[in-house]
Amino acid sequence: MIIAIDGPAASGKGTLGKRIAAHYGLRHLDTGLIYRTVAKVLLDAGHSPGDAAAAVAAAKSLDPSRFDEVALKSHAVGEAASVVSAIPELRAALVAFQRDFAIKPPGAVLDGRDIGTVICPDADVKIFVTAAPDVRARRRAAEYRAQGKQIDEATVLADILKRDERDQNRFAAPLKQAQDAYLLDTTHLDIDAAIWAAIDIVEATRAGRGRD
């Protein structure tokens, strides 16, 4: 079984992906970490996040088992990743990597911004996770505070709105809900409620009940 979870920044898709994968005994890939890893490699080497050749070169040595989520979730890396992810050459280079991960038994949960539309268009279940921008900003600011970093919530909101604009309007694989994806709005849901809502979507799809 392949489950595709897409959505904008700080919508909760990463946490959902991990928990859904654990619930069903599937492998999990946070595809955003792939782009963040490439971005960090570029930043550490002094390259511009928009350097296509350097980005593609960095992508060739990716190892998901060595991702350092704490380092990759920094504000600077997130900003650079948003630029990196708009590079068509890089996205093309990573398509096979993500698809290979998805098809290996017993299946996988992938979360990102183009899983249901580009990477796994034939996924068994597609969920598009969203939330109001101010709620997403509050969640992301809380993540930074948990890491001991102080950042103004208004700054986070401005960054999220800028990333939404960039992700939705980029030429390569723009962020959008797949036609056959279920919409899950987590604005008024805590993480446990969101997880059970997602599980209900998966079970409804497996049972062939369709949309409620």
Order of helices and strands: EHEHHHHHEHEHHEH
What structural class is derived from the secondary structure elements?
Answer: alpha/beta
> How many distinct helices?
10
Largest sheet: 5 strands, parallel
**Overall geometric form:** globular
Task: Please mark out the parts with pLDDT under 50 across 5 or more consecutive residues, or reply none.
Answer: none
Q: Compute the gyration radius: what is it?
A: 16 Å
Helix content: 40-55%
Overall average residue pLDDT: 91
Describe this structure in words.
By secondary structure, the protein is α/β, with parallel strands linked by helices. The chain has a single domain, classed as P-loop containing nucleotide triphosphate hydrolases (Rossmann fold, 3-Layer(aba) Sandwich), CATH 3.40.50.300. The protein contains ten helices and five strands; from the N terminus they run E-H-E-H-H-H-H-H-E-H-E-H-H-E-H. It has helices at 13-24, 31-44, 52-59, 69-72, 75-84, 88-103, 115-119, 133-146, 153-169, 191-206; strands at 2-6, 27-30, 108-112, 125-130, 182-185. Strands 2-3-1-4-5 form a five-stranded parallel sheet, with helices on both faces. Helix 1 (13-24) crosses helix 10, helix 2 crosses helix 5 (75-84) and helix 8 (133-146) crosses helix 9 (153-169). The protein is globular, with a radius of gyration of 16 Å. 41% of the residues are buried. The model has no long low-confidence stretch (mean pLDDT 91).
